[in-house]
Amino acid sequence: MISRSVHTPRKPRRDVRAVLLLCALAAVAGPAPDWADAATGPLQLGDRETEALRPVALPAVGHLHPAAQRQLGEAYRSLLAVARDPEAAPRTRSEAYGELGMLFMAAEFLQHAARCFRNAELLAATEFKWPYYLAHVLRRSGDLGAAAERFGRALALRRADPAATVWLSRMYLELGRPEAAEPVVAALLARRSDAPALRVEAGRIALAKGDYASAAAHLEKALALDPEAGSIHYPLAMAYRALGDPDRANRHLRRRREDGPGADVRLPDPLMAALNGMLRNPQYYRDLASHAASGGDWALAAAHFRTAAGSAPEVAMLRLSLGIALERLGDVRRAEDAFDEALRLDPRSYEAHYALGSLLARSGRDAEAIDRFEDAVAHNPNFAAAHLALADARRRSARIASSLASYRRAIELEPGNAAARFGEAMALVLLQRYGEARERLRRAAAVHPGRTEFPHALARLLAAAPDDRVRDGAQALELMRALVVSEPTSAVAETMAMTLAELGLFGEAVEWQRAAMAIAARAARSDVAQRMAVNLQSYLRRQPCRTPWRDGDPDLVPGPLPVPGREPVR
Amino acid sequence: MGRNAELARRFGAPAGGIPVATTIRVCWRPLSVEGRGRGHDRMVRHEAPAHGRELSGVRCIFHGMRSLPPGAVVLGIALALSAGRTAGVTGGSGAEWFTDGTAAAGIDFVHFNGMSGNYDFAEIFAPGVALLDFDNDGDLDVYFPQGRPLDTGSGAEEAAGVAEEPFPLTDRLYRNDLVVHADGSRTLRFADVTAGSGLEAPGYGMGAATGDFDNDGWIDLYLTRLGPNRMLRNNGDGTFTDVSRRTGTDHARWGLSASFLDFDRDGWLDLYVGNYVDHRPGGDADCSTPTGVRNYCGPQRYLPVPDRLYRNRGDGTFADVTAESQIASAYGRALGVVADDLNGDGWVDVYVANDGDDNQLWINRRDGTFRDEALLAGVALNHAGMAEAGMGVDAGDFDNDGDADLFVTHLDNETNTLYVNDGTGRFEDRSARARLGAPSVPFTGFGARWFDADNDGWLDLLAVNGAVSVLQPLLQAGDPFPLHQRNQLFRNVGDGRFEDAGARAGAALRRSEVSRGAAFGDLDNDGDVDVVIGNNNGPARLLLNEVGNRNHWLGLRLVGGEPPRDMLGARVGVFRDAGHPVLWRRVGSDGSYASASDPRVLVGLGRATAVQRVEVLWPGGRVEEWTDLAAGRWFTLREGTGRTLRQADH
Fold first, then answer.
1. A163 and A94 fall within a common domain
2. A545 and A535 in contact (C-beta within 8 Å)?
3. Is there a single domain that holds both residue A189 and residue A274?
4. Nearest Cβ partner of A67 from B292, B441, B485?
5. Domain around A103
6. Residue B465, helix vs strand vs coil
7. How far apart are the first and last CA of chain B?
8. pLDDT tens, residue by residue, A481-504
9. Cα–Cα distance between A134 and A482 in angstroms, integer?
10. DSSP conformation class of B620
């Protein structure tokens, strides 16, 4: 088996010849892999305890992106140059191996990276970074025992390194050895008590050992040190759960539920961060852009998506992602251009149709938006968000009957979609099908017991629907008694007034209507308060309300989504 | 054994009759043929002797990795190239726990994933497997879902005709024609009875669930598909009728795992369907590796869609109660589903493993609604608080303490997870302590199930593996389908820990393939659990258990109703001699990944030769016991015929 390979010589002259010979052979025979079984099991380093350097091959790279090919080729040539130089110091050779290893690692050539790092380590035995990188390579390839051994070796060279400490601890924990992890973390924690990552690690170790009080203490401190690290809430909740403190456990679980996974705890790791920028190709910029977008830096995301799109001009998804980033930046014109370009590249892209439709809707161009949404659902009939957006746009455009069909399709696809259920009910109201609207709202209230918009809207219908068969003041009052406590808004107060008026309690209705107007005025919505005066006059005349929603009420005329919704950004 | 001879031996071709160089069959249909676009007009057919349906070991070459032009529709079919991926599949030497009985038993199913070189996300998730006794003759038959060309927008539909030779692209049903000889020895043979069975379901098959939804005594099939799922009613005469629309269970989402369960205890099986993501074939973005090599996208690229819960009305139809039951209030990208009483209150709950999202634990509130308690229960995330890529799942009492523990398979560079139940529905991630975490790091696990491989009384684990994004070393090696990995058997050593039993499991189990579904059951009724594995774009495997007969066992089929049906959701406790823990097992065909297993319960007794009594908790709440059950035999326990210990507590 012949591979394009190089190893650093003990006797430079002879080994340079060997290198040249190997290169010549490789040029004739082409690369041949010798690690075919590596993917089916943990990476094998071979005789890793022997002192000899191991040959390093340049893998077949012809199928890689040209930029990656170029980079790997250049790094390999650099290594060759150093290897050919009999005067090169061991540390220089070590750096050459190590830098190529980093590139291999970034490119996921783990076997090659391991060999490079191992050689680099042998040539510079006191250098921290090579065993550290090697440990990560071993970790990625699944050999956690070997990874732990290498992290330990790295830590011996730099005892106060937080990243090596944490990673070594993690390896021990995955290997089921918390007792081995404990002293490693404790030693550094004694010197760096303000390091949140170390605190978290100590907490995890304590959890694994069943020492829940200690776990809770460490994790609470970590959360205090790094309040943005949402990932702490869950293990902390588990610690409190085990301690028999469900209140605290639920408090942290609620945070986890409401805030989502949250950020991981800060762990400064400059060596691993250095790998991120090594490979320059569209995927690299795409990853950078996605990372920036997930962090909310849309300007940076747009810049990286633009670079990626420039180097892969045929990829519609990159244009789509660029458009989303640009729209979030407020650059609507360029965003629209990007969406148009995405659709030119891939006319079947339902996501691009949807994104462009959403932009148009937000720009008040509902007629065009409807076309885009219709195309989106034509290309993907299961695209619930597009059905909902289409329904809303149609409702805004007074195409109520067709909006109803779209709402129903959205509900069919996503039975838990509250917005679609509300929209369906409001479309029925607009169609003056009050009885059906009432039943839909009742069902929606049962499906979404935690949401108030359904009982509120139901109460309005029961209090003020023009259809005599639909109204039921007593039921409305029952619903409103709970709502006025939980939702003291002007709209709720106004619904209470409608309800009381329906029950013939006009004096109370006047009071509630005045209260509603006062709340609106306090919120600087004198326009709303003014419109409410019509109902007030009715109640003063002892006339009930028969218009549950006024024309233009936001419940009846939904606005477009204020920001791009759940489109995936890559 | 040489490569050619090995291929020939494995696939039933004449020894030495298939030169490897001529076995590759590449069918490359041009877009331009249909006037739909540009492409290459090339077709290479293999020149090997035609073996008709016996030419079973076919699979697709993984084109598009290197040189195929974008948009070209490529359907590659070639003889399986996996011969070099294993240490050699030899017959049962006695030392190996499992041997490959696929060819000998007549299973010749080969999955076709429909790849066109466009890296369609959907092509790497099937197939599941179902074991079901569809003809009520007392042995397990086998069903496999089949794929089809996926890139419908670029002409692959037309190309399907090419791929239909030499075997049709249809789901397959194999009837078990087990022969038990006078001396007790057995010959396991399967016959392909697909033709005329009604299993020619349209669409792209993913997996299956089994259960007698209409209580007629004949087990029915629910097929998860890429697109509308299918409910197939067993007519009792060897045929099935598609009643998807009539039953109202044909929603058009991408389903994978499903479970029949009686969540409202009304005696009719309801149906939970796990749905994955909103994906349209042919609409993929091109994703790539860090080096710019084309790759499959990850699941985060696609939006999750809600699961479905259907309540059986008892009249042959189902009501979609997804919204009313609160199941729609939380959802992720569901891949694995298992139903069991996880909090010990006697009512069946549902656990859903999601791909990259929080898992759900739907606790049955006994009023037709469920509440997701996964976070507080400790089964939503791993020990570090991270959502992992949940794939397959199963529930079982691995530590013999009387409650159901959960096992979930995950992506490589994550660990498979063991959630240990404290008896109240609170779980703890003990993957590392149990030695199940670290060994799984290099592998992407799919199908998995608790089963007592060696009948020693402790539930073991089999995880079948196969990556979902290209493996760089295999790609470098020029592997045409660089996703394959070996499977893993973990033996329960009885102290809360497991050991990797790969070395003794046998070469058949270590074979490196792109495994997805796995179904478990005693196919030859000899008292040990065999396994059928569905491999993506490759031949199915039947692994025969060669170790279980070294210990004692008790086989139980738990039925109820008239005519009798398997009582999914029942729990059975087997009481042995003093000093041996009670063995609690569940009756369920669900779990694993997109697959349905033997609903019967096979209990390994270890060295215990006697069973004092058997206690059954029926799904309706009644508790009964049986005594005088001899080891080493299969029994059918019928609800209402044992000694009642407690009446139903509705």
1. no
2. yes
3. yes
4. B292
5. 13-138
6. strand
7. 63
8. 989 888 888 999 999 999 999 999
9. 62
10. T
**Under a CB-based contact definition with an 8 Å cutoff, are residues B111 and B171 in contact?**
no
Closest of A142, A140, A135, A137 to residue A169, by C-alpha: A135
Cα end-to-end span (Å), chain A:
40
Determine how β-strand B240-242 pairs with β-strand B230-234.
antiparallel
- H or E element that contains A285: helix A282-294
Tokens of B515: 């495994």
Same domain membership, residue A446 and residue A565: yes
Query: Do A468 and A536 belong together in one domain?
Result: yes
Chain B residues 244-303 with CB within 8 Å of chain A: 251-253, 278, 280, 282-283, 285-293, 297, 300-303
Token reading at A31: 């690369």
Interface test with A, best of B289, B321, B379, B476 (most A CBs within 10 A): B476
ipTM of the complex: 0.86
The CATH code of the domain that includes A544 is 1.25.40.10
Tally of domains within chain A: 3
3-state helix, strand, coil in chain A (%, to 5): 70, 0, 30
For residue range B144-171, what is the model confidence (pLDDT) as tens digits? 999 998 865 544 444 433 444 445 789 9
Integer Cα distance of A567 and B20 in angstroms? 47
A351 lies in some domain: no
Quick check: B300 and A238 CB within 8 A? no
> What is the three-state SS of A489-501?
CHHHHHHHHHHHH
**Stretch A237-257: mean pLDDT, rounded?**
94
- Give the pLDDT mean for A133-146: 95
**Has residue A363 been placed in a domain?**
no
Which of A106, A138, A170 corresponds to the end of one domain? A138
Residue A455 forms part of a structural domain: yes
Instruction: With a cut of 80, say whether residue B82 has pLDDT above it.
Output: no
Task: Copy the structure tokens of residue A268.
Answer: 């400064």
A417 part of a folded domain: no
Mark which of A138, A169, A201 sits at the end of a domain: A138
Q: Give the pLDDT confidence of B550-579 residue by residue, as tens digits.
A: 999 999 999 999 999 999 999 999 999 888
Token pair of B522 as six digits: 């005693």
**pLDDT (mean) for B471-492:** 92
pLDDT-derived band of residue B648, with 50, 70 and 90 as boundaries? low
